[in-house]
Task: inverse folding
């Protein structure tokens, strides 16, 4: 689809005008191959209108390595937004091909509970420096969680994006792993984003203005407008985003 | 139409296939959550109508599979 058609579908307006209320039970979004071919640096940036404190082991979005089917979790290369009720922390983390811990960082206190509203979650990898970076940015552009880059033990080569329920390579939920979110948009980058880029994006409504040519793939909930049950066509990139369980009528205006 | 959630045992999936369910997470009792958008009439044995509130369903989910 050409750019003019895409802009028509979006009404020529700001691309982030709605969210999709993923229920944390069955709804999910996935894109097969959205990040294929980027193995020097990459990042996943997901913006949500709200999250729901709903369970013991929650995911907002993750990148997946196709083909790593066993043991369970081996395909979860990069995850953000996990939070355990009771301990109240957020994490970024990633698994090795053997499903061991590759890297991880979690918040230390309950201070991040307030993030349980509109926020942008980022996890990024530098496969040369062997590091992982995570950030949570409030919708006003304030950095809500930051820390020094974490060492990663093993390189990863994720290709697929999954939003909502944590899933395996076939995009089927793992038992009991869920997160209810109001999904606004996800951006995949071929770089490790700076704080300034992330802050500009979190406070704005168009990733292209914040990240420019660093974007590999960018899709928004508003992309479901005019598409019925989907798929959502990305504004940057080609791999479509498939919606499972949600349709255009479920969109909620921001 | 408002989404409705069903608890479906694996051996009863054929019995609710006409509702065009979207299967999701696993419940504590081993059944799978199925989201449907049609009027539900007669349900097969072992299939339970969980209502329309996802928050209620989330309370019934099984704990996550452990991994590092």
Result:
């Amino acid at each position: 689809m050409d750019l003019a058609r895409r802009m028509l579908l979006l009404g020529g307006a700001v691309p982030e005008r709605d969210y999709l209320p993923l229920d944390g039970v069955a709804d999910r979004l996935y894109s097969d191959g959205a990040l294929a071919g980027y193995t020097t640096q990459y990042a996943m940036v997901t913006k949500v209108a709200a999250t729901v404190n709903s369970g013991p082991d929650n995911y907002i979005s993750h990148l997946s390595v196709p083909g790593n089917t066993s043991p369970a979790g081996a395909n979860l290369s990069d995850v953000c937004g996990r939070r355990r009720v009771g301990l109240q922390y957020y994490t970024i983390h990633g698994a090795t091909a053997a499903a061991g811990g590759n890297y991880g960082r979690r918040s230390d206190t309950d201070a991040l509970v307030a993030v349980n509203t509109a926020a942008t979650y980022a996890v990024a990898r530098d496969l040369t420096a062997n590091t992982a970076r995570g950030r949570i940015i409030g919708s006003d552009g304030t950095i809500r969680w930051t820390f020094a880059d974490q060492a990663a033990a093993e390189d990863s080569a994720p290709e697929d994006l999954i939003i909502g329920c944590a899933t395996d390579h076939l995009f089927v939920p793992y038992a009991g792993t869920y997160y209810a979110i109001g999904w606004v948009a996800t951006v995949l980058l071929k770089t490790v984003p700076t704080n300034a880029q992330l802050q500009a994006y979190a406070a704005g409504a168009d990733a292209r203005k914040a990240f420019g040519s660093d974007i590999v793939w960018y899709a928004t909930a508003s992309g479901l407008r005019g598409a019925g049950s989907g798929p959502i066509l990305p504004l940057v990139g080609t791999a479509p985003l498939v919606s499972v369980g949600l349709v255009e009528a479920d969109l909620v205006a921001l | 139409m408002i989404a409705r959630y069903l608890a479906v045992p694996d051996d009863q999936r054929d019995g609710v296939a006409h509702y065009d369910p979207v299967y999701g997470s696993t419940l504590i009792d081993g059944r799978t959550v199925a989201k449907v958008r049609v009027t539900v009439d007669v349900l097969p044995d072992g299939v339970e109508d969980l209502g329309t509130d996802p928050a209620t369903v989330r309370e019934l989910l099984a704990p996550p599979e452990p991994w590092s």
User: Anything to note?
Assistant: The longest strand of chain B covers residues 4-8.
